[in-house]
Amino acid sequence: MPHTVAVLRTGSMGDHLIALPIYRRLRELHPQDHLALICNIPAHGDRRLIGPEGLLPTGLFDEFHAYPVGSNWRAVWQTYRLLRRARIGTLYYLMPWRGRARLWRDQAFFRLANIRVVGLRTGPTLSTPKQNGVPPRYEHEAERLVRAIPALRGRLSTTPEYRSLGLTAEERSQASALLDKPPRCAVALSLGTKCDVNDWGFDRWSELVTRLAGIRKIDRLLLIGAPDDFAQSEALRKCWPRDSENFCGRLPVRLSAAVLAQAKLFIGHDSGPMHLAAAVGVAVVAVFSARNPPGVWFPLGERQRIHYRVIECMGCRRLRCDDKHKACIRGISVDEVFASCAEALLHC
What we know:
By secondary structure, this protein is of the alpha/beta class.
């Protein structure tokens, strides 16, 4: 008899896009069951951040539930009521990397709620990403998540089929109409980021765009991002001598994905649009700070060129870096990012 299986995954657009192959595997494991996603809608209660309901392919989940934000008694009670009301039989725990104290707390809560939980492991070898190789490279967040789920262990697939958004013909048609005429070699760029430490700097972006203008086969620049990115993206257009479009804050997320699919290359920070570009199969050149260990949040897929500086304070998890002046990301030169872009466009 079908029963309700829930997946608990909070975060914003990038968090759900890197978990998309896992969602598809879980749907395959539970083809007849009612599959629900418990998530913060929108992420962290911030309307500027995109939750999964308008992002993920239709049919993947049967329903979405809003996860109460906070750790006070009111939020705990609301979470308990949500789980009981939804009559959840099994819950897959796909929460982002967190400290052991919070893992112990969550484990105790689900035991008291009498919910069968899969994937909640408190041991350090399963709750934190493993380091692979020298120079340091850590396992991807998606790999860390599946290690704690016995039925999925060793079965993570990040092929285009599993990370695809399943864009419809209508969505692709709308994107084509927005671009008026199909570009021969479009480059998409997003300079937005949720935290200051991940910001490469407008000076670097403007210099890069000026250099890219010298590659004559690039016939259009597409700027993607949130409403807050619109003004800076408009300023960036002044560095570009040919056709350009600023779609920041103007499109629903899946239509933004369909526009990105028209590009030959995406360039940007560690951000939701970066993961969105990877999901639609576009080559990615990304500029990362060392806020997270290298590899954990890199985009899924093979067509990527990542710029990351390994420094002594990597993995700091900071939102700002005033004392070191963002030495990690600011240490990445325009020359090396431009070289990666030119290489990615060789066969454009």
